[in-house]
Amino acid sequence: MKNYLTKPTWVILPIVLFFLFSYAFTQQKQSESKDADFYFNQGIAYIDKAQYDLAIAAFNEVLEINPRDAEAYCNRGIAYREKRQYDQAIADYTKAIETDPKLAAAYYNRGIFYYFKKEYDKSWEDVKRAQNLDYQVPPKFLEDLRKVSGTQK
């Protein structure tokens, strides 16, 4: 029996297989990215429709695909806020901040929840961090925080 695979074929075959596997991996990653975008947009739509449990489920899908998506944590935090589940919202904003420390909106939103929980020092801390990142904190919120905390920070 003759071996029809010559030396050049043995050299080329691994290269071809490498490129095929690389292409397949890239296609899978692009597909996952599109899926994450789909679920993210779906979550936003559910929030707009006040369907918070469905929004949370959609953002859970995003985070399963990409656990480093800070915006998904923030938006899931909004859904938890609307359900008055403040501890879960704070946990999501904390995770968003760990993932992206420059996400000013996460600090501001977490500061709001600390305000609701009457943890005013923590609220001030987050509000100041948001402002340091050029976030425009609504003056009414600052005024209310000053009144209840008894400080002029």
Describe the fold and architecture.
Helix 1 (7-48) runs antiparallel to helix 2, helix 3 (70-82) runs antiparallel to helix 4 and helix 4 packs antiparallel against helix 5 (104-116). This protein has 2 domains: 26-92, Alpha Horseshoe (Serine Threonine Protein Phosphatase 5, Tetratricopeptide repeat), CATH 1.25.40; 102-153, no CATH class. The chain has helices at residues 7-48, 52-65, 70-82, 86-99, 104-116, 120-132, 139-149. The protein has 7 helices and no strands. The chain is globular. The model is unreliable at 25-32 (pLDDT under 50). It has 153 residues and is mainly α.
Element layout with pairings:
Blueprint: H1 7-48, H2 52-65, H3 70-82, H4 86-99, H5 104-116, H6 120-132, H7 139-149
Helix pairs in contact: 1-2, 1-3, 2-3, 3-4, 4-5, 5-6, 6-7
